[in-house]
Write a structure and sequence with these properties.
Blueprint: E1 2-11, E2 17-19, E3 24-41, E4 44-57, E5 85-105, E6 109-126, H1 131-134, E7 140-154, E8 158-169, E9 184-191
Antiparallel strand pairs: 1-2, 1-3, 3-4, 4-5, 5-6, 6-7, 7-8, 8-9
Length: 193
């Protein structure tokens, strides 16, 4: 599956940034993300994810593409790795530990299964639009981590996932060491459609 998104960023008349407001053009962000799932054995799935992004124009920092966060490099915070160019790759191995549970919790949630996820990610972020900067060693960030997924249904019909991920950065910018958490811990609830 491939997902492409383009977002126009403008500035309101009072100088505050807003996305999609009908004022004047400040910039544009574009991202692409592709994923491939392969299940060689029952209960074991490999997930390959690759993507990139670019921000053009005079973008405020909060509108720049990020390399950190829940769906990218989980060991890094959303606002830690910002820049106009980014590339990333993620490999996950998902192993089903328990399935077919049907544990009923007060007729609101039915727990269906439990998964363990091992993941490794590599990303590059640049501070400018120069592609050569993207290839420098200083732009590299990496992580390794482990996650636990509780697969459940809301009211017995709407599938969901409760995810707990713990990730360790393989490298961090020298100016961020000591200012950021040494590991990333993310707890999320997602609906699967």
């Amino acid at each position: 599956a491939v997902r492409l998104s383009v977002r126009w960023v403008g500035t309101a008349f009072d100088g505050r940034p807003c996305a999609g407001c009908a004022t004047f053009w400040n910039g544009l962000t574009a991202t692409v993300r592709a994923n491939y799932l392969w299940t060689p054995l029952p209960g074991t799935t490999f997930v390959l994810i690759a993507g990139g992004g670019a921000g053009l124009g005079d973008l405020p920092p909060q509108s720049l593409p990020s390399l950190g966060g829940r769906t990218l490099l989980r060991a890094f915070e959303n606002n830690e790795l910002l820049g106009p160019l980014r590339l990333y790759g993620i490999v996950e191995v998902r192993r089903t530990l328990l399935h077919g549970l049907n544990a009923n919790l007060s007729h609101l949630v039915w727990v269906r299964g439990l998964q363990m996820v091992l993941f490794v990610a590599h990303g590059r972020i640049s501070r400018t639009l120069d592609p050569e900067e993207l290839m420098r060693h200083e732009s590299f960030r990496g992580e390794i981590g482990l996650g636990l997924r509780v697969l459940f249904d809301y009211i017995g019909v709407q599938p969901g996932v409760l995810a707990l991920d713990v990730a360790v950065p393989l490298n961090r910018a020298p100016n961020e060491v000591g200012r950021r958490a040494p590991v990333g811990v993310i707890l999320s609830v997602e609906q699967t459609l």
